[in-house]
């Protein structure tokens, strides 16, 4: 019975850490860039796009397709960074129990 109590305590501690990690994830902000920094997008923790920066040279006539491609690439860069940070926070929160591959932990 002592082992069960210890396991329950570990599970409660992990739940608290996961809740804290989710709060940290909600506060995350990452920037993705493309075109050598000519386009930058900012994503927040849940993946919401919060800012787009575009070099004025891309606003010239005939640059629409290039600009579209650069925005998509910058978003992909930001999303990759956001996913990596989220996974890292969740792995840290799960600790040794995360290594067990428990379902539903999202990493």
Element layout with pairings:
Elements lengths: L1 H26 L1 E6 L4 E6 L4 E6 L9 H35 L9
Antiparallel strand pairs: 1-2, 2-3
Describe the structure.
It is a single chain. A three-stranded antiparallel beta sheet has the order 1-2-3. The chain is α+β, with helices and mostly antiparallel strands. It is rod-shaped. It is built from two helices and three strands.
Task: State the strand order across the main sheet.
Answer: 1-2-3
Q: Which fold name fills CATH's third level, the topology?
A: Ybab, Chain: A
- Structural class of the helix and strand makeup? alpha+beta
How would you sum up the major sheet?
3 strands, antiparallel
How helical, in percent, are the residues? 55-70%
> What low-confidence regions span 5 or more consecutive residues with pLDDT below 50?
none
Oligomeric form of this entry?
single chain
Beta content comes to 15-25%
Mean pLDDT: 87
Number of strands: 3
Q: DSSP helix count?
A: 2
Radius of gyration (Å): 20 Å
> What is the level-2 CATH architecture name?
2-Layer Sandwich
Give the SSE order as H and E letters: HEEEH
Quick description:
The chain has 107 residues and is α+β, with helices and mostly antiparallel strands.
């Amino acid at each position: 019975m002592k082992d069960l109590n210890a396991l329950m305590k570990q599970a409660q501690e992990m739940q608290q850490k996961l809740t804290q990690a989710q709060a940290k994830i909600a506060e995350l902000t990452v920037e993705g860039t493309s075109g050598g920094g000519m386009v930058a997008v900012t994503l927040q923790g849940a993946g919401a796009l919060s800012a787009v920066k575009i070099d004025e040279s891309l606003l010239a006539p005939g640059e629409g397709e290039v600009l579209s491609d650069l925005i998509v690439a910058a978003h992909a860069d930001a999303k990759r960074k956001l996913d990596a940070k989220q996974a890292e926070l969740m792995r840290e929160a799960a600790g040794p129990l995360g290594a067990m591959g428990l379902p539903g932990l999202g990493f």
